[in-house]
Amino acid sequence: MNKKNKGFSLLEVMITLVIIAVGMLGVAGMSLKASFLNIENAQKNEALYLANDIVNRMRANSDNASDYVGTTVGANPDPDGNASIVDDDLGSWKSEVESRLVAGTGCIYEEDGKVLVAVAWQSDAPLGDAISNIKKRYSASSAKSMVGKADACGNGKYNNGNKINQFRQAVVVNTYIG
């Protein structure tokens, strides 16, 4: 081996190690992001389940469906055990929303025979206000005023300093109760 080539193999190995290290950091970052999104999707699935749960309870008790409207997260069940079906439904729904979601909030609205159920929760990262994004999608539709009402659900609860609702994620179910 001549003097010009001494240490060249060591330099190649060091460059290769740096390239591999950068690649591994990229893989670790993608894995972390995938893990975070997996948690967010699990929260979204729970919220959809809870929204559909109260809608199904309202359909099962359709004679009293209007008694569910105007509820934010639900009412406490009657402590003496004489609660109505609506009180029982709302009490158990409140318990489920609060226990299954991070800082969960649920709201029920009604307009022209349509029922809107919004379920909001706190994200682990400032992803932006989900209800504002939903409002943009419905801006030209007949559901615009209903989605506007959903904006009150958890409004101001999920802040990031002066950025209002940066941590608020939500699902909205808009349906008829027969």
Please tell me about this protein's structure.
The protein has 178 residues and is of the alpha+beta class. The chain has one domain (10-176). The protein is 47% helix and 14% strand. It contains four helices and three strands, in the order ααββααβ. The protein has a three-stranded antiparallel sheet, sandwiched between helices. Helix 1 runs antiparallel to helix 2 (85-100). The termini are far apart. 26% of the residues are buried.
**What is the strand content?**
5-15%
Helix content: 40-55%
Kindly provide the radius of gyration, computed on alpha-carbon positions and rounded to a whole number of angstroms.
Answer: 25 Å
Class from helix and strand fractions: alpha+beta
Taking all residues together, what is the mean pLDDT?
78
Ranges where pLDDT stays below 50 over 5 or more residues in a row are none
For the secondary structure, the number of strands is 3
Overall number of domains = 1
Largest sheet: 3 strands, antiparallel
Query: How would you describe the shape?
Result: elongated
Helix run count: 4
Give the CA-CA distance, first to last residue. 89 Å
What pattern of helices and strands is seen along the backbone? HHEEHHE
Strand adjacency order, main sheet: 1-2-3
In short:
The chain has 178 residues and is α+β, with helices and mostly antiparallel strands. The chain contains 4 helices and 3 strands. The protein has one domain (10-176).
Short descriptors:
Pilus_4_PilV, transmembrane helix, alpha+beta, membrane, 178 residues, N_methyl_site, 14% strand, transmembrane
